């Protein structure tokens, strides 16, 4: 039997049910997601895109409690590299999500940088590389956001490196970590996105362990990824091709990642996310059930 990963709190998210947007006819209804994530054996969930789950705290509390679920985090998208001009609009979005996240008893806010390439149309929105000034805006703006979120809502932010954003590769992630205050800014390490962009999750955990504040568990299909990279395919169309695949058929192997995370000696959420937008409504539940069984076989 594998060693018990008793510091790892496993959960899932609307993303694993093909949910990317607050409202989309291709997505499963929110109540079906809650029913099925509980049926699959998960205890923890994320809120997903703001507005997908009910935003009234009393109603949402009733919905999750009666399914024996708890909320681990909310998620926001930001474009802080654009500088002070976007601060007010960013905070307006963040405060809504942070207020609901706190009301649900969660302690984390996952912060995802904005896309330089549209994840639905593949249209180029911005250059893929930041200037030195934009890097400064990103790092200082993230610290400012972390401080205000902590002071106002008592939450810790965890920044999520993501494909087709400016925070993606090992070089970019290490630059970001080295340029930000470890007391304020830590990472949500998404194993799938990091592999998608050429990174090694175990190496990152072992090198920057004190900066790993949260995990997303995900795998990529290496053959599909090779085609995606060779042909410059955007993230959205890559997902439709199945680049994010069901564990344990892809990379990185999750057992070493979980073992390395356990060795940090701190409690960490490990939230399963298998990007599947769009997908047939009957597809997510069997995958979620098999994935939960697989993670139990790893000790989680």
Characteristic key phrases:
Xyl_isomerase-like_TIM-brl, globular, 300 residues, TIM Barrel, two-stranded antiparallel sheet, alpha/beta, IolE/XylAMocC-like, TIM barrel protein, 11 helices, eight-stranded parallel barrel, Xyl_isomerase-like_sf
Tell me about this structure.
This is TIM barrel protein. Residues 34-298 form the Xylose isomerase-like TIM barrel domain. Pfam families: AP_endonuc_2. It comes from Streptomyces actuosus. InterPro entries: IolE/XylAMocC-like (IPR050312), Xyl_isomerase-like_sf (IPR036237), Xyl_isomerase-like_TIM-brl (IPR013022). The protein is an alpha/beta fold and 300 residues long. The protein has a single domain (8-297), classed as TIM Barrel (Alpha-Beta Barrel). Helices cover 40% and strands 16% of the residues. It has 11 helices and 10 strands. The strands form 2 sheets. An 8-stranded parallel β-barrel has the order 1-2-3-4-5-6-7-10, surrounded by 4 helices. Helix 3 runs parallel beside helix 4 (132-153) and helix 7 (201-207) packs parallel to helix 10 (254-262). It is globular and about 50 Å long. The mean pLDDT is 97.
């Amino acid at each position: 039997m594998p060693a018990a990963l008793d510091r790892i709190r496993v959960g899932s998210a609307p993303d694993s049910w093909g949910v990317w947007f607050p409202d989309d006819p291709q997505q499963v209804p929110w109540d079906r997601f809650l029913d099925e994530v509980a049926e699959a054996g998960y205890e923890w969930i994320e809120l997903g895109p703001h507005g997908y789950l009910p935003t009234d705290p009393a109603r949402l509390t009733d919905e999750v409690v009666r399914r024996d679920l708890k909320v681990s985090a909310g998620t926001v998208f930001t474009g802080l590299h654009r500088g002070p001009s976007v601060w007010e609009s960013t905070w307006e979005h963040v405060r809504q999500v942070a207020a609901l996240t706190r009301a649900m008893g969660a302690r984390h806010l996952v912060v995802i940088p904005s896309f330089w390439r549209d994840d639905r149309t593949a249209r180029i929105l911005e250059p893929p590389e930041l200037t030195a000034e934009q890097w400064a805006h990103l790092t200082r703006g993230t610290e400012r956001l972390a401080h205000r979120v902590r002071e106002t809502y008592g939450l810790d932010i965890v920044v999520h490196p993501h494909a087709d954003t400016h925070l993606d590769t090992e070089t970019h992630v290490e630059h970001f970590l080295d340029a930000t205050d470890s007391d304020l800014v830590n990472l949500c390490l998404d194993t799938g996105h990091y592999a998608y962009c050429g990174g090694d999750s175990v190496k990152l955990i072992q090198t920057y362990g004190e900066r790993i504040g949260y995990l997303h568990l995900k795998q990529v299909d290496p053959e599909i990824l090779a085609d995606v990279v060779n042909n410059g395919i955007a993230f959205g169309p890559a997902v439709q091709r199945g680049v994010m695949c069901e564990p344990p058929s892809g990379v990185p192997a999750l057992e070493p990642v979980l073992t390395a995370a356990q060795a940090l000696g701190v409690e960490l959420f490990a939230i399963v996310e298998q990007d599947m937008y769009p997908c047939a409504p009957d597809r997510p539940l069997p995958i979620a059930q098999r994935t939960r069984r697989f993670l139990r076989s790893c000790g989680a």
